[in-house]
Every structure is written in structure tokens, then in C-alpha cells.
Amino acid sequence: MPKFSRLAALLIAGAIVSAPALAADKAKSFATVNGQPISQGVYNAFLAEQMAQGAPDSPELQAAVKEELVRREILAQEAKKKGLDKNPNLQGQIELARQAVLIRAFLSDYVKANPISEAQLKAEYEVIKNNLGSTEYKARHVLVEKEEEAKAIIARLDKGEKFADLAKQSKDPGSKDKGGELGWASPNSYVKPFGEALGKLKKGEYTKTPVHSDFGYHVIQLDDSRPASPPPFEQVKPQLQQRANQQLVEKLVKDLRDKAKVN
Fold first, then answer.
1. What is the pTM for the complete model shown?
2. How do residues 192-203 score in pLDDT, each as one tens digit?
3. Which of 64, 107, 198, 232 could form an S-S bond across to 15 if both were Cys, CB 3.0 to 4.6 Å?
4. Can you give the pLDDT at residue 25?
């Protein structure tokens, strides 16, 4: 799957998961603390945020939200008494928070106005499924820094030493303590040289020459293979939806950035 910018991932997550509902009447206050009103809009937004995170609406939740906002207002008033609202660094943080709220609202509206169709999601599902191939492999490997090290490991395997024992010297922290095991996966899920070498092995075989990738030199053994059984569309639909929304936002941000005049 293609990689998306951290910006797009964060923005779309905020837009879909926790975008607050804005109150129609921002001027109306629902409580007053030391003479300072807390707007109904703030209350509605905070309540909506809690509900978006899974809290059911109830008198208890409403009371808890009110108490939390009262406490926040009390602390904010104390901070202002100390002049912290005039601190340049804090003003910058406040501006960033303000921007984040606006961005979430904007992206939420954009995603809703440009929905991804079921047909688009199914087409993407078929592309991914075809890229995975018809066979998945259970492999293990030893990853070392130098080609000479990999050749030495192959020579020791030729003499009958166990792959799992030799894997302890691997540079791969995720597999070295598991005998080099990588679990079941499609060759296309690995870097290209690794996947190509794996696809040429028969069950029980290991590579007779080191396989070079950006990570170093691999010695690969194929433990088993089986027909690929991708999860059904409905199971992965939420992930496909999120991925499609990320792509949508990524394109929007790129288009806007290309048009922007920056001096």
C-alpha cells in the first residue's frame, strides 16, 4: 500500500473521528463561573466530542461535562491572573489549537461532500487482492550487515546447523528471538529482492547466495506455502474507507499547496 504523509493521516483521523459539532447559538451561555460565561457552543462541542469517543448521552455524562468545563474555566481564569495568556510561546500554542479545530471542521465537511463510493472501495480491494498474489509463504530469515557474514551463515547451514540457532545473530529484532520466523505473508509484502528470492524457493530450501536489500544481506528459508486467503471485502471495508479518505485529503492538501503563494 502506498504511504501517506503524517499530516494527511493526522488530519483525516481528526476530521472523521473527533470533529466537534459546532453550536448554532455560540453567544448563549450555559453556565457562569466567577462572572465569566461558558458558552453553550463550548458545552455542545465538548459533549459531542465525548460521545464521538463512545460515551453514551445521559444525565450523568452531561453533568460530568459541565463539571469538567467549570473546572477548566476556573483554572483558565487563574492562568490569566498570572498573565500566562500574554506569554508569546503560549499564544503560539493557542493559535495552533485554533487552527487544528478549523482544519478538522474543514476536512470533515470536505470528506462528507466527496464520499467514496462502494464501487471505488471494491475496485481498490480487487487491486490489493491481485497484488497479494495467489500464494502466501511462511518464511524465516537471518539479516546481517555484510555479504561475507551471510555467506558464512549459508556455509554453516550447508554443514547441518539449525537455522533457528543462526538466526540469533540477525539484525532483525522482530524475528531474531523467534528463530528468524516472519509468519505467513505474500512475497509482495516484502521488499522486492526478498520477495523475488522467496518465490523461487521450494519448501524446506534456503537461499544459496545472499539476498541483498536496503536493509542488508538476507539468508532466507521457506518453511511452507499455501493458497492465499484474503479477508472478505466487508471485513476490510473500514480500513479501505480510511485509506481512501487519506488519499482524498492528501490530494486536497497537495492541490492547495501547489496553488498557494508562499514568500
1. 0.58
2. 999 999 999 999
3. 107
4. 47
Same domain, 13 and 108: yes
Residue 97 has pLDDT above 80, yes or no: yes
Helix-helix angle 88-113:233-259, to 10 degrees: 120
Q: pLDDT tens digit string along 227-242?
A: 988 889 999 999 999 9
Of 62, 83, 113, which one is at a domain's C-terminal end?
A: 113
